[in-house]
Amino acid sequence: MRILHAWKSLFLLFLSVIPTKVLGAVLAIDYGSDWIKASLMKPGVPFDVLLNKDSKRKIQSSVAWKNSERLFGGDAFNLASRFPSDSFSSVKLLQAAPFDSPAVSYYTTISASKIAETSRKTVALEQSDGTQWAVEELIAMQFAYIKNLAESVAGEKVYDVIVTVPPYYSQFERDAVADAIEISGLRTLALINDGTAVAVNYAMTRSFASPEHHIIYDAGASSIRATVVQFSADHKTSPPGTQIFVKGVAYDRTVGGTEFDRRLREILVQSFTTKHQRNIRNEKRAMAKLWREAGRVKAILSANTEAMLTVESLAFDIDFRTKVTRAQFETACEDLQGRFTQPIVQALDNAGLTLDNITSVIYTGGATRTPMIQAAVKALVGEDKIAMNVNADEAAVLGAALHGASLSRQFKTKNIQTFDISVHEVQASYQAPAASGSSKPRIITTGIFPAGSKAGTKKTLTFKRTEDFIINFNYKNEPAPGFPTHLLETEITGVAEALANLTERGAVDPVVKATVKLSESGFVSVTEAVAVGGIKEETLAGKIKGLFSGGSSSEIEPEETTTDPLRAQDTSSTSESSASASSSSSSAASSSSPTAEKKPTAKELSTIPLGINVRFPSIPPMSVEEKKASRSRLRAMDVEEAAKNRKEEARNTLEGYLYRLRDLLDEENRDTPFKQCSQPSERAALEEKMEETFAWLHDRGDIAETSQLLDKRTSLEVLERPIIHRYQEIEQFPQALNNSQMWNWNTRLFLTEAKRNLTAEEEADLPSKWTREELEALEKTLKEHESWLNIWVEKQKKVKPNEDPVIETTEMKARAKVLEQHLQKLYRRKVPKPKKTSTTASATASSESAPTSSPSSSEPEQSIPQQEIPEDQIPIQPHDGHDEL
Ligand SMILES: *[C@@H]1O[C@H](CO)[C@@H](O)[C@H](O)[C@H]1NC(C)=O
Ligand SMILES: *[C@@H]1O[C@H](CO)[C@@H](O)[C@H](O)[C@H]1NC(C)=O
Ligand SMILES: *[C@@H]1O[C@H](CO)[C@@H](O)[C@H](O)[C@H]1NC(C)=O
Ligand SMILES: *[C@@H]1O[C@H](CO)[C@@H](O)[C@H](O)[C@H]1NC(C)=O
């Protein structure tokens, strides 16, 4: 019951959070160094991966410029062999990488792109014209491209996105992903570790009667990683859901598909050098071509023992032909062999399990197709444990989409809960308060989130302080070679005032408490800092004193609160809950409720919120201003491209129109409606204008404005329009005449019969539907219409096809309508009740006009306008609190 209650209040909490978000589709992106896969969750849209304009299910992670045209996907990737300096690929390898780190020097061995250092000491890439783009911006362009694809499928704007990241991504790298998302105009719903996403995908179609352990073995382009997960049934929900616990993660960032490509290219380069005695390494185009060929050869060698390769005019006008064998490739990778399986061994070790505990090893990632990797894994785990039961390319993005959908809570999805971990140990360090006397200040360092800590947890640090102070957060070890360890510097402010306040009110030994959160998406942040003091009350004072001053040798007392695995908002109960450390480290998140009732002592505890100033001492995330500037930069480019497209279209349309006119005016085409309906002088004028426009387009088409192009077309259309009008009128005339005559005919029939009936009714002294005057009025309308029609049809008969008509079909229709309505008005009248007088009858009738003229039917239907946020109002967030993620 308690659990249920807690769940309910959590749910209410979510409801109160959601309204700030607009409900809509959820986009998932699996952004790899080689390939982007994306998927859209939207009610009414079949759940699948997104296709690009060429119906490809995976899109190359590339962006390129050809002259001023921007390209994406395969077009961008392939451009490298012609414009190697303007085609950017594998930029994921540079995410958050310090300019002087090994990751960057590695990148320069695989790419011809020119690199530059940003003001944040990270990497930008430079186009041949000198334009520089931060890695975040290049990735944001690709996200925006995916956003557009998704929007064309969804038929509406898409804002919320979940993006997969490797589990080893440090906060620096996660920030780089979140920044790219924001620049692209999307909103980060969450980041999800890719192994976990694959596990979600695996659980989608399976249920687990008893707990099972599996290893997600992911061999991707940039790394190999192994994630040990436990699947078990969650009987607390109905129908039972699935819980996924990540138990251990290990990885190797130096081996993967990209490294294979690099080594294969090296084989090709050496083969060229040996054969042709020329140095090809400085030939950017040739190296880019060989990079592409290496990828192809790798794919061929996955299924064959040798691959032939031919590149015409590779460099120095030499056609390059060579053969690469699988054995050659594997020899070149000999030193990597041991690293293929090491992550499995380590991940098991981290999880405290052995291979015997593992039901299967689930392959995912493109490099699992490489035979030497398969052989190595098979040798370690045995063939029967290897499972190829998820789609190696798409499992991660589909799992991420499902997870994103469950976070957004607007979809009924299978209930799958994930409990992930973080792989880097996070420490807090701070200066010990100066002891009495003048001893040197001591730095105290304490681990707060050890490697393997559950994501989505909070810890409260307690300090005895009297002044503002700084807590530093850092990784215990370099998260990647050359990366800094210093993460955040957090200053807690307003301490003295708050403590003075508490003391004045009689508090004994007030303390400072800071709540540190490791979010679901893997971000560490200080979410709250307060001064806490027990207000003096004889019976309680001692008790409270005992609570806060215990363990004085180590000032810090981390206490752990496990929060909802999805996205709990912080609640003040965390900081108010008692300091009993025993409530910590519960394995199931639901066992600890953030809405636990206040302890009796809480009444006497008083808290005062403190200030938190965050600084990023090493690799800062982009500032709000930087992100805004980048977003404007990208948007300006979009606007420019759209304007260019409009101009292109205007130009093409004008050109097409001119050719059509030339055809119409052609001497050869005699007796066409156009010729019949036009006069020689009109054709001459049109021809003159046409030739003039042709000449103009030829001379100035390239520099013309869109408006000029449109004006030119308009001035031609003005000349053509009367001719078109004539033959349209000739075409429509018979039908219009038929219509007019039909209403004449119908009215006459009606009048004959109605008059006869009226006479009969008068004689029998019965009520009539009409009065004689009414019938006479209709007859008058009829006669007027008939005579008008006769006169003008006679006149029209004398008009030649190349002269303007004397009556317009629109006028004919309008006049026939007048007659029709007059007739309908009488015709629809109901038979009056015998006793009623004829005046009453006509009164009733007057309100019953033909439905076509009733005002209600002509009113346009009120449609509810769709609620969309203007793009420039998607908020950009400062990175001082990641509690949203
Ligand atoms: C793992 O396997 C060992 C040996 O077979 C067994 O003792 C242990 O209980 C298993 N652990 C789990 C979590 O299944
Ligand atoms: C102490 O803080 C409380 C609430 O924060 C405030 O109402 C009160 O005026 C303060 N007292 C002093 C003495 O500053
Ligand atoms: C005129 O209308 C009648 C009846 O609607 C139809 O049968 C006939 O084909 C029409 N003639 C022309 C020229 O439209
Ligand atoms: C004339 O009277 C006959 C017989 O009552 C009826 O069927 C017919 O509809 C009437 N005609 C008109 C035009 O009202």
UniProtKB/TrEMBL annotation:
It comes from Marasmius oreades. GO terms for molecular function: ATP binding; ATP-dependent protein folding chaperone. Residues 547-604, 825-885 are annotated as: Disordered. Residues 1-24 form the signal peptide. This is Actin-like ATPase domain-containing protein. Keywords: ATP-binding, Chaperone, Endoplasmic reticulum, Nucleotide-binding, Signal. CDD domains: ASKHA_NBD_HSP70_HYOU1. SUPFAM superfamilies: Actin-like ATPase domain, Heat shock protein 70kD (HSP70), C-terminal subdomain. GO terms for cellular component: endoplasmic reticulum chaperone complex. InterPro entries: ATPase_NBD, HSP70_C_sf, HSP70_peptide-bd_sf, Hsp_70_fam. Residues 825-836 have a biased composition (Basic residues). GO terms for biological process: endoplasmic reticulum unfolded protein response. Residues 572-593, 837-878 have a biased composition (Low complexity).
